[in-house]
């Protein structure tokens, strides 16, 4: 069985690039701070939600579905290896949405495991070298690797990812630590985001007295693509309006519709500026994500060791250490 899956940071830039490295096209991750209609409409289409919370052992009286109730409809995999829950939660969304371009690797995985039980699906994910390699590429370099991994105890903070996704008119909670999917309610593509809110809020309220660290992210359509399509539509609309205006200018003056047309054209121009600004912001954000991911993947330890060695050879390291010892604790 595949091993050595490392923890990765819960970050939209990390998860977006992770999906890209797994071969998925046309999607990105977006961090959510609210579930109101206006906020969600601004980032549509939304394919699924991923919720991060501090895990604790507790009894869950909700019944998980039996395999016969969802096999062939819902892709559900048990988590059979530690540290893989982030990637597994992402896959729970990606592999349950036929409108997402999965790419060759994940398409083959989905088809190959279609009739597997949840345990075998989890094993297939854990043994996928390409998925594990993409996942581990975002782990911070460690100068000292312990020979044995220590199991978390009751004093450690353990965080877990679960997914919420609509499939064939039903909203599901997919948690790899459960024996099967949790059927939440009936939901359509148009209303599932309205219906999922109370379930997430209820989970937050269960921990509210002792925990405030939660993270909610959405798998959405690539914003550059979405905004690009919107811009093309607006520009086509503007061109049609200008063409009509040039042809019918005299008649529009007679009918008194010239002012209305000018206002409509001004409104379209304003929308074009808004979308163009959105594209510039998105490009800047994706560049920032890319730069941050490069820093995450870079091992600076050899440079630091070499730099300290040079300081020592030039006789500058010891004076720096001695000077640091004389500084107040807050300035060190």
Automatic annotation (TrEMBL):
Residues 4-221 form the UCH catalytic domain. InterPro entries: Papain-like_cys_pep_sf, Peptidase_C12_UCH, Peptidase_C12_UCH_sf, Ubiquitinyl_hydrolase_UCH37, UCH_C. The record marks 79 as: Transition state stabilizer. The record marks 175 as: Important for enzyme activity. It catalyses: Thiol-dependent hydrolysis of ester, thioester, amide, peptide and isopeptide bonds formed by the C-terminal Gly of ubiquitin (a 76-residue protein attached to proteins as an intracellular targeting signal). Its EC number is 3.4.19.12. SUPFAM superfamilies: Cysteine proteinases. Residues 243-265 are annotated as: Disordered. Keywords: Hydrolase, Protease, Thiol protease, Ubl conjugation pathway. Residues 251-262 have a biased composition (Acidic residues). The active site is at 85 (nucleophile), 160 (proton donor). Belongs to the peptidase C12 family. PANTHER family: UBIQUITIN CARBOXYL-TERMINAL HYDROLASE, UBIQUITIN CARBOXYL-TERMINAL HYDROLASE ISOZYME L5. This is Ubiquitin carboxyl-terminal hydrolase. It comes from Coccomyxa subellipsoidea.
